[in-house]
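Q: What does the assembled structure look like for these inputs?
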Amino acid sequence: MNDALSFIVATLHATVRAGTPLLFAVLGTIFTERSGIMNLGLEGIMLIGAIGGFVVSYNTSNLLLAILVAMIAGAILGLVHAFFTVTLKINQIVSGLAITMLGSGISGLWGKDYIGVVAERFETISIPLLSDIPVIGRILFQHDLLVYISLLAVPLMWFFIYKTRGGMTLRAVGEAPEAADARGINVFFIRYLYTIIGGSITAIGGAYLSLAYNSMWIENMTAGRGWIAIALVLFATWDPYKALLGAYLFGGITALGLRMQAVGTHIPPDFLKMLPYLLTIVVLFFTSTDTLKRKVGAPATLGVPYSREDRT
Amino acid sequence: MKKLLFVLAILLFVASLSVAATRVAFVYVSPVGDGGYTFMHDQGRLYLEEALGEDVVVDIIESVPEGAEAESVFRGYAQRGYDIIFGTSFGYMDSMVKVSKQFPKTIFMHCSGYKTTDNMGVYFGRMYQPRFLSGLVAGAMTKSNIIGYVAAYPIPEVIRGINAFALGVSYVNPEAKIHVVWSNTWFDPTLEKDAAISLLDIGADVIAQHQDSAAPQQAAEERGVMSIGYNSDMSAFAPNAFLAAPIWAWGPYYVKAVQDVQNGTWTNEPYWGGIEDELVDIVMSDLVPAGVANLVYAMRESIIKNQFHPFQGPIYDQDGNLRYAEGEMASDEELLSMDWFVSNVVGRLQ
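A:
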């Protein structure tokens, strides 16, 4: 029984760690998409965050500065995306894909000199008292700083989106930009702002991989997590709490699959590998039509550029 | 006028180069920056350029997916008149076979496959030899008798490696078990690390790997236990954990292969080089005690002199069946198609 409990605790501990990079990416993108800008460039933004953070941590050993630079790098890609989609009104899907390719290309080039070296990483900080709680303490309170930040970010973001004036402005721009415009809200500015903020938060997810999970840079080290995060934004229906649920669900499937194998249980590895993607497809199915999207709370103008001339 | 002469001279120089030099192309499946398998092939490519200097003109292309895209890359190099094209991934096999028939004057060299044509050869290394040696180290060093092995895909190459490693372990420590976790990826450091942690959580005190990145090594380092790497010396990633690694050294082979083509002595005879050919070897860190290191060196000598084969009987599989009796040993063909685990491996194959 004790063995079973420690197995479960270890699995849940790993779940939190595996879910954190996804959580950052999903939270950032919820901001962006709430303003009505669809962003498919997560993989590229995470990669640029991973290399940006790693370069600084390697050269300065200053992890907070590393995170800051990762966020700036992500913000710049967010700015590029905003420029294409808000100002030039280019198809948001195309621009997002271009951001992915741009991010992966730049990170590969930037990272050439950083292959095979190790840098500082965020060490585990056990929170006094809380980490001593049986079971829960190990699962939630023996992690690194970024995990705690992501956990705090969830309720804060929820509060901001639903309970503050700023959040209301953000939602108004995504739901009814004409009305927001009529009320004197600068729709273009808000969309720029949240695409940039979203990019910088997403980039922390990438930096988590190179600064906390691992302490090295490897080309394309996000290995598809940006794409899973895109599906998770839908799964979460643009709600931070559900984002937490979705990210940990995905992290949990991975963690459980590996641990089942380690103890010698026979589950076809291909099946476990498939599970997260199967879940993605199920989620996409349930959010596929416009009516369904409306029902689950998708921003009404998601993916639709706004221009004043179009007003009728 | 002077300028014109200068340009002409350069043009002549370039032209003479392209006539004299052998044009060599390398097609990689992952970025050179993977820090593992492709990285080591690229080290071999650099060695080749260094060694043959102006006699070769070398081009590389990274991250070429297996399938249709690979086929067009191979065709492209052949059309542009490259003399030798190396494809370093198993999945390039059928594309290379197809294109090689269309360009009979170009030599195609495929790493790790088994199909050849008149102008297409295959080459690979007997990685099971150093893997057996690294198993000796792991078996001697483990205290918990639980050894973790993070593995990519259940294909013969990987299974052979696990078995060779497990035979090395049981040679010095019949009690120890090897627990295998499949990551089902060649390339996801985060997942590889988590796979290693899942093995550490069940009490493994040595982590071995058949993965490209050093992430499993770092997992062992952070937990304060020991590790066996792969591809290259990974001690920089885990200075307090790294014991040993079976490694690749492609350089001398690439030089030989290109020279064979230049001299007209190339054949499509499959090449499977071992420690004796300096294609593969083992590196060990200072953490390995002298006694263990000496045993490894002695076994290495026996393998080189062909007095010992890692897959020599008696060998039992997981179900207790005697696969190789005393004195028998596995043939190359059996090694290349291996689909069963030896008795001290925990974990199943479908």
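Chain A has a mean pLDDT of 90.
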